[in-house]
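Hi everyone,

Forwarding the result from last night's run.
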Amino acid sequence: MQWTIVGLGNPGGEYDGTRHNIGRDFLLEIAEKEGVAKWKEDAKLHALTAKAELFGKKVALVLPDTYMNNSGKALTALVKSKKAAENLVVLHDELDMPLGRVKLSFGSSAGGHRGVDSIQKALKTKDFVRIRIGISPTTPSGKTKKPESEKVVDFVLGTFKPTEGEKLKKVKKLVAEALELLVNESRDHATMVIHSKQ
């Protein structure tokens, strides 16, 4: 069974580089580094797709062209069974984690992430892999410093600061390693390795 890898974000150039688009942006960048050049607009799926080889394995790459809150619409025609859902990987931003942290999870609740919630409702299952990428700043003592609720939208639609560039590079490497371990080893092995590095 081939892996389907999805990068969540909002379509359109004005959202490139925003915190909310880190899943979409990272998947594009990792795919490009691995030599994936051909993406096609799939009107039926409402997504940009690529059938490609990533880290030596054939995969289906998906960038939904719907807005974040409607991400599930792009996957219903692709992921048609529980087994197929178990081979689905969703990359997305995580407000509850600091920038620099990456966490793999399987079968967990959406935790308020509307893109993940849309996918869970569309596929009628929580049993897929999520690569959660922290986007929040930290206090000097290292605690996650989430924005106040009324500022969340502005924060997630804002871009990263130049001072966060080094953390972004490191976290992108971790996400690429997580994908490589997932497609070549197993979910459990990828989770153990990535979590032990942080």
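The longest strand covers residues 88-98.

Cheers,
N.
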